[in-house]
Each structure stands twice: as structure tokens, then as C-alpha cells.
Amino acid sequence: MTFALREHTADIAVAAAADSLSGVFGAVADGMAAAMIDDDVPATGAQLTVSERAESREAALYDYLTRLLYERDVQGVLPVDNAATVDEPTGGGDWRVTASARGVPLDAVHARNLKAVTYSEMQLTPPGDPTRAEAGTPPDAVREHPDDWAAYVVFDV
């Protein structure tokens, strides 16, 4: 699981890769947290769990990240050490994300505000997908192995 922050006009983007769909969701969430803080993350914080349902993989990623921003705003915590489990729909149902994170109190860190997750330029590409971005573009730039999932998400600052 790896991520990199990318400059994006007036926004910021996270490019991430992992050996599974669940792993890439967690990597993007960790990247989102890194985009909000420059300091070392303190070892404090309580465990939080979230779950989301959506009609597509991309919508599930969007809803999951939006939920983490909601938890930041409502609970006053920065979700770090993110782990997600993504379940494919069965019988025409929804994609499901069940995730956990450590919620570091915002008063323990100096955090920047990310306003929102965007669908602008969002990419979520499975390994071996012939439609995936060309080599060297943001998602592929962090792939450690050609069999990795890759994601690219832009956040409104």
C-alpha cells in the first residue's frame, strides 16, 4: 500500500496503489489524511469504524472518503491508519465498504482543511485493466507492481 500527494491546480490529489481493492481504498484515505497534516501524527486517538454502500466502485470510494471528512468535522478527529474492506455486490446489490481508522483529536494536531472529495479526474483502475491510465500518469506513478490496483482522487481545498 502506497500513496503520493500530487499538486493539482488549486486543489490537491492523492495517487495510490495497493495489491487489492480494499488496500487501495485504505491507501487513498491515508493519503487524504497526509494532505491535511504536515506534522508527525501523535499516537493518540480512539478507534472509529464506518460503513458505506454505493452503486459502483467509484461511488463507494467517493462515499467512503466523504464519510471520513464528515467524521473529521462532526467528531473533531483526523482519521489515520485507515483500513478498509470492500465487498463486491452480489445479486445486483450495492458495493459495501467497512472500514476502521484511528481518530486523532484535531486539537492535538495542526490540520489543514480539505473541503470535499471530487469526482473530477477520479480514477480507480484494477490490475490488467486495458482502460487504465497510460504508464507515467498519476495513478501508475505509484504502482509498485503491474498487478496493483491504482487510484487517483482530487480533493477540493
Describe the structure.
The protein has helices at 21-36, 57-75, and strands at 2-8, 11-18, 46-54, 77-87, 95-105, 116-117, 123-125, 149-156. The protein is α+β, with helices and mostly antiparallel strands and 157 residues long. The strands form two sheets. Strands 1, 2, 6, 7 and 8 form a five-stranded antiparallel beta sheet that branches. Helix 1 runs parallel beside helix 2 (57-75).
Labels describing this entry:
157 residues, alpha+beta, 3-stranded antiparallel sheet, 2 helices, globular
- Helix/strand class: alpha+beta
Give the radius of gyration.
Answer: 15 Å
Distance linking N and C termini: 24 Å
Q: Kindly state the percentage of residues in helix.
A: 10-25%
Indicate the proportion of strand residues. 35-45%
Provide the residue-averaged pLDDT.
88
- What is the N-to-C succession of helices and strands? EEHEHEEEEE
Discrete helix count: 2
List low-confidence stretches: 132-136
Broad shape: globular
